[in-house]
């Protein structure tokens, strides 16, 4: 996640800065050839590109930050469409680059909407000063270019999402892995500290998992963990997230969940596992350690250690229990 944010930010900044230099170069060339309207256009848009680069850097840790990019693109579109309406039809070539920019700067759906708006507005403006044939030729070429770029962006988006899913999920249980737990827990702690909303954590472990693994073998473990992971996914709420560690141990993050709600959820999970029939072993039980974060607790490792200590207490006191860690 962090690597993706870093690479995407670098690409956006490089795109903005390169575009700014190209616009300045075009401004010089336009002066040489006496195209003063295009010169002023280039001088106007070059600083806008640099502002976009500053915005990309300032929001480098937020993958979903795109409002500033949309403002930059919209401003450029308005300026170009106005010039088209005034008869500067040569500037229509700038729209091809603008359409490609949108797929690098905006979410996929917003990029498609932006390009549809660009196509409609620019075609109408161009038709005021050019023939129907020239307008149709521009609209067709723009549609083909943007369509191909959009298809590539769509394929890349889905491939990237699949690779992210593979890298952060355990294939057997369907739960997230511990690497993603470290990343998400830090985010949730920061959000909880900022908003003052409670954050609760559950760690649970299948009782006597190692002994059952020795008796029934690894195939049993995979079958059981797959069924257990699906059961947890069904039993938790939409905003909760589940993580698999190893040897039958799972973590659950419960945002906006106070201590009272945490205990209700933990006990419900314990009873649900105890009452269900499972593959091979028929009956299972789990031990649970849990806590609700107090204000000022920002050390993620310390919070996990507290839940693990509560889990050990549940196991030592006879298993099949829920123990709440108190600060």
Topology:
Blueprint (H helix, E strand, L loop, with lengths): L1 H31 L3 H23 L8 H19 L8 H12 L2 H20 L4 H37 L9 H18 L3 E8 L2 H8 L1 H18 L5 E4 L4 E7 L3 H17 L10 E7 L7 H17 L5 E3 L3
Parallel strand pairs: 4-5
Antiparallel strand pairs: 1-3, 1-4, 2-3
Helix pairs in contact: 1-2, 2-3, 3-4, 3-5, 4-5, 4-6, 5-6, 8-9
The N- to C-terminal Cα distance equals 32 Å
User: Could you report the average pLDDT, rounded to the nearest whole number?
Assistant: 90
Q: Write down how many β-strands occur, each being a DSSP E stretch of 2 or more residues.
A: 5
Compute the number of helices. Answer: 11
Q: In a few lines, what is going on in this structure?
A:
With 327 residues, the protein is α+β, with helices and mostly antiparallel strands. The protein is built from eleven helices and five strands; from the N terminus they run αααααααβααββαβαβ.
Written description of the protein model:
The structure is a single chain. This protein has 327 residues and is of the alpha+beta class. It folds into two domains: 2-168, no CATH class; 178-324, Reverse transcriptase/Diguanylate cyclase domain (Alpha-Beta Plaits), CATH 3.30.70. It is built from eleven helices and five strands. The chain has helices spanning 2-32, 36-58, 67-85, 94-105, 108-127, 132-168, 178-195, 209-216, 218-235, 259-275, 300-316; strands at residues 199-206, 241-244, 249-255, 286-292, 322-324. Strands 2-3-1-4-5 form a five-stranded mixed β-sheet, sandwiched between helices. It is elongated, with a radius of gyration of 28 Å. The protein starts with a helix and ends with a strand. The mean pLDDT is 90.
